[in-house]
Amino acid sequence: MTRTAQGLGYAGLIPFVALSLGMNLHPLTTVAFTTYSAVILSFLGGIHWGVALTRPEWSTPTRIGLCMLPSLLGWLALLLPTQGALIVLMISYLSWWLWDRSQLDQPDYRRLRFHLTAVVVLCHLVWLVQT
Length: 131
What we know:
Layout: H1 3-11, H2 13-21, H3 29-54, H4 61-67, H5 69-78, H6 82-103, H7 107-130
Helix pairs in contact: 2-3, 2-7, 3-4, 3-5, 3-6, 5-6, 6-7
């Protein structure tokens, strides 16, 4: 994994952390947090989509369909009240992290995903406790 990919991965945590720290500063902070979370969740499905397009053994209808799941869950979360959205998003991140661990065996990626998922889930927990 390149340093650029790692750096961008960690930089992607900035909105999660900043919006969690400033959750009461503006009425749109909640919308910004849940929307960003849904977009990033969708991105995680895209990683598997990319792998499925490059590995013939992954190009099954079931695998490609599963790649769409994070996008659909993120979209569903945006239709729910705040607490429901936070719960769906948090469970989705944890579930997709477990799926990643069972499917992708690259140690650097696994380590990065663990760090990123831990922070993202912690931010969702902070929001759940405060809302």
